[in-house]
Design goal:
There is one protein chain. The protein is mainly alpha-helical. It contains twelve helices and two strands; from the N terminus they run ααααααββαααααα. It has a two-stranded antiparallel sheet.
Length: 303
């Protein structure tokens, strides 16, 4: 029988959840900075392959120490393979964006993903979204347009293909997130992580093979760091949502913007322009409003 937590214990647990979320976003940002450094030397698909392979050993250790490997085979193969294909496309777009754009700009565009998850949940999961939440989604899309600055001749704000690649990665991430909601009803978290990494590694390697470059021995430390920060970040974000309510924890995902600014300055000596920050602010504000409306909706459904 589970013990009922006191108000002070709940507050402390929520604070630990917030700290774990901030830690998770920091770890993922360090991983992304490592990926950006690797794109100087290798193609986008090869970097995506290295991302998957470098995290796989850490995840295998975690699976062995938790549920064991038997649960990896009791899965819905069709949906797992489809999610794997989305992961390849998503990581390729994400890494390609890193090649040409500051981390801060990539994050600003990618912040549209939570809004897209809500929109896609309507046709795929049959969830209901009211007019206020649809308004927040549309405003978030306006924020993306501010960052990309489309003109009759193209995109003025960022390198056109890079910006669109990140936007495509956000769409792929959103579809994958909705699929996780479906798969989690039958498949374990361990199987979701394992088969995603396997699909990412093998699928990206298939595309990267014709132009594969031998990995420089001096880069192995960076590659191991990418894998370790990615695995630890996944653990931290899982713990964050276990310790605190999603509506309380999720807004701290936007701390990625601060991490991006710091890493851009420290490692690359660049910053996005003011219009990019304006667009990011619009997206973040719409995302926070959407989270508030979802909490209100949940409380109305389950008083």
């Amino acid at each position: 029988m589970n013990r009922v937590l006191s108000a002070d214990e709940l507050r402390r647990q929520s604070l630990r959840g917030i700290l774990m979320m901030v830690l998770a976003i920091g770890l993922f940002s360090l991983m992304d900075a490592g990926l950006k450094l690797l794109t100087v030397h290798y193609g986008a698909m090869q970097v995506a392959t290295l991302r998957g392979l470098s995290s796989l050993p850490w995840v295998l250790v975690w699976i062995g120490l938790s549920t064991g490997f038997a649960t990896l085979w009791r899965i819905r193969w069709g949906l797992q393979l489809l999610r794997g294909a989305l992961s390849v496309a998503m990581m390729a777009g994400f890494v390609y964006g890193f090649q040409l754009l500051p981390l801060t700009t990539v994050y600003a565009i990618f912040f549209i993903a939570p809004l897209m998850v809500t929109a896609l949940a309507v046709p795929i999961l049959g969830e209901k979204v009211g007019p206020r939440r649809w308004t927040a989604i549309v405003i978030g899309l306006v924020g993306v347009l501010v960052i990309l600055r489309p003109t009759p001749s193209g995109l003025a704000g960022v390198a056109s293909w890079a910006g669109l690649a990140v936007l495509g990665a956000a769409v792929g991430y959103s579809l994958s997130s909705v699929m996780v909601r479906v798969l989690s009803r039958t498949d374990t978290t361990q199987s979701l992580m394992f088969w995603m990494l396997i699909s990412l590694s093998l699928g990206s390697a298939l595309f990267a093979w014709p132009s594969w470059r031998p990995v420089d021995s001096g880069h192995w430390g960076l590659i191991i760091g990418v894998g370790l920060t990615g695995a630890l970040g996944q653990y931290a974000i899982t713990e964050a949502f276990r310790l605190g309510e999603a509506s309380l924890i999720a807004p701290f995902e936007y701390t990625a913007l601060a991490w991006g600014v710091g890493l851009d300055l420290a490692l690359f000596g660049v910053l996005p322009d003011q219009i990019t920050f304006v667009g990011a602010g619009i997206i973040v504000a719409s995302g926070l409003y959407l989270l508030r409306r979802e909490k209100v909706h949940a409380e109305a459904e389950h008083p």
